[in-house]
Amino acid sequence: MRIATIGTSSISATFAQAIGDVDGVEHTVALSRDVSRGEDFTQRTAEATGNRARVVTDLDDLAGAGDVDAVYVASPNALHHAQARTLLAAGKHVLVEKSATSRRDQFADLLEVAHRSDVVLMEAMRSVHDPGFARIRELLPGLGALRRAEFRLCQYSSRYDRFLAGETPAIFDPGLSAGALMDIGTYCAHPAAALWGEPARIHAEATILRSGADGAGTVLCGYDSPAGFAASLHYSKITSSATPSGIEGEQATLEIDSITTPRRLVLRGTNGSTETIVVDGAGGGSGAPQNMRYELAEFARLATAPAGQRDDDALRAHQQASLDTLAVLDRTRQIIGVRFPDDPWAAQESRTAGGV
């Protein structure tokens, strides 16, 4: 599979490493608005990918490129929908970085275009394609009736220092559909959606920054099935926490060391038993290869399947999880009052904290 990339940020560079880790995937084109930045990116990533991709600066040129089968979209969130739509309509498979789009209705629109073009559209949510997440799925039945889950990702961002100094980095700019919820809160919301679907009820609180973006928040998701089950999602880019995630059942609790890269799972029975499960996989420690290889391998498996042999059930499950996640993000933003350009819902009461 010949893949192009959009974006030259650190996440794109990490994805380039994943290209080198997955057999049968070749990096052929890089799109960058700035030629020199694009050339620098392809030079830096050539060793990891195994070849140096050519640089283009125009999306239409990329859409019409004969040496591109698929595109990884890692531009700012606000650009995902328009860029992916152009590429899907041109017959390119698209792997779009999280959050897939600014809103659920935009992703639903992309699914219609992908269906008409008979191409694969998938969100790049590395955690749910990780072998650790597969192990979590396997262990769930042993927990008994599920009652509570807590998924956490709180990582202090160095860009918050710049924000406090008076700048507005892109990650804290709601005009780019950014903020902590869209950047790392989705890492908590997506696994919950993949496991249990869209919740019936949502409650949320957040720290709103002077830019109008959120810096941290907590989302409580209530489910009718399993009956009486609730999942709390805790995320932050302005504080840090080493508290693990977990899923609690009536027979046992599953402690998860990292919701993005599950490598150490501890099963604690209500009878006092303890079992530690170590998951073998990439991305498990400092300096280890990132686990983006798993999402890319799954995307390539689906995109390169012979006609009539694509695993449509798996693809639909991935896409439904993205739809359900975006439904949670949409509703959360409505509750906490974070607005993006062209949001269709009415403006919420401003909760901007003037001193932050």
TrEMBL record:
Outline the extent of the Gfo/Idh/MocA-like oxidoreductase N-terminal domain. 1-123
Keyword annotations from UniProtKB, A to Z: NAD
Quote the Pfam families the UniProt record gives: GFO_IDH_MocA (PF01408), GFO_IDH_MocA_C3 (PF22725)
The record's section on SUPFAM superfamilies has:
Glyceraldehyde-3-phosphate dehydrogenase-like, C-terminal domain (SSF55347), NAD(P)-binding Rossmann-fold domains (SSF51735)
Keyword NAD present in the record's keywords: the answer is: yes
Single GO term (MF): nucleotide binding
**Which InterPro entries did the record assign?**
Gfo/Idh/MocA-like_OxRdtase_N, GFO_IDH_MocA-like_dom, NAD(P)-bd_dom_sf
Q: Which residues form the GFO/IDH/MocA-like oxidoreductase domain?
A: 143-272
Task: State the protein's name.
Answer: Gfo/Idh/MocA family oxidoreductase
Report the source organism. Answer: Kocuria coralli
